[in-house]
Write a structure and sequence with these properties.
single chain, 339 residues, 5-stranded mixed beta sheet, 6 helices
């Protein structure tokens, strides 16, 4: 509601984007600056200059339609120092969860703002989940995999055991503020292209069917305030853009967060299906980071047990002392009890 009513916030990430990206979702409701206190100042100044540079009729148009937030986001991202082409803008280069202040180009932002006309303003992309197989109760703890559902940001947590998931999202609720026809681009911004499939549907691509396979955490070299930083990631980000023939809009996001502390092993079966073999939950034992509000840690490794049809029927657990225990689902009718 704040974003759609012309509010935009700037916060320093402090310790949430150093050796690892600790954010469980990407969203456009705020600008997050790399660093601690005062790192936000460059962005605040750039935003103030951009707003001041907008022609008065454009500013009024944006304010009345609740488009100041997404328009500022579009101008900031389109004019970063490492964003030169439309292809750059439609890639992860322009849409990190945290922005490096050294890449901000206030002069370029002011230049674009000063020439923006009301008839060319792109819309706010409004997303809605049509269907998905993320569950209300998943994993051993039986917790929901829904992190957030909002018009410009959708978030899911991978708590279940399966190798692949599917979600269908539509931008049908998006309306053009000036009557221009719009088409949509669905772009993988972060994640393994071989493990994410995006299939837009319809002539203007308003809806997309997205399939995501399990991602182990990975590292990337990213620019930092004091030079390149090798950083760990464990989240897939997909950006949805509306193009009105003049400008691409600010992105709205679909984020899938993976439990970075778990060590999972999957195997390919003869039918081509991937089957979970084991999960090591012991983050504390390995000194691995985990977010206690989202995930949990335990001093054991579970090995999956399947029946002849391939159905998961239980777990063989080994704790930190090497003691093994067999488990079956609660209420299962087994002729031979387990230890």
């Amino acid at each position: 509601r704040l974003y759609a009513n012309n509010h935009i916030y700037v916060y320093p990430e402090h310790r949430d984007f150093d050796k690892a990206d600790l954010f469980p979702a990407n969203w456009p409701y705020m600008i997050i600056s790399q660093g601690s206190s005062r790192s936000d100042q460059r962005f605040l100044n750039a935003v103030a200059l951009t707003l001041a540079a907008l022609p008065s009729d454009t500013f009024t148009f944006l304010r009345e339609r609740g488009l100041i937030g997404p328009t500022v986001q579009m101008i900031l991202r389109r004019n970063l120092a490492n964003v030169s082409t439309r292809a750059d803008y439609l890639s992860g280069i322009a849409h990190p969860v945290v922005f490096n202040g050294q890449l901000v180009r206030s002069g370029r932002m002011v230049e674009q703002a000063a020439t923006l006309r009301p008839e060319n303003v792109p819309p706010l992309v409004r997303l809605r989940v049509v269907e998905d197989d993320f569950a209300d109760s998943a994993g051993l703890a039986g917790m929901s995999e829904d992190l957030l559902d909002s018009p410009a940001a959708i978030g899911r947590l991978w708590r279940g055991f399966m190798w692949e998931r599917e979600i269908v999202v539509t931008a049908d609720d998006t309306s053009s503020p000036n009557g221009l026809p719009v088409t949509f681009n669905w772009q993988l911004l972060r994640g393994d292209p071989e493990r994410v499939t995006i299939k837009p549907q319809g002539p203007d691509g308003r809806t997309a069917r997205i399939r995501i396979a399990w991602h182990d955490s990975w590292t990337e070299v990213s620019p930092g305030e004091k030079g390149p930083i090798e950083r760990q990631f464990s989240r897939v980000d997909i950006g949805v853009f509306a193009n009105n023939g003049v400008h691409d809009s600010a992105p709205s996001f679909i984020s899938i967060d993976f439990p970075e502390h778990q060590i999972r092993k999957y195997s390919a079966e003869t039918d081509g299906e991937m089957r979970l073999l084991s999960i090591d939950y012991d983050a504390k034992g390995r000194g691995a980071y985990f977010d206690p509000l989202l995930y949990w840690t335990a001093k054991w490794t579970d090995r999956a047990r399947y029946d002849d049809s391939g159905e998961l029927v239980g777990w063989d657990r080994t704790n930190a002392d090497g003691v093994e225990t067999g488990f079956v689902p609660y209420g299962a009718d087994m002729e031979t009890p387990f230890q």
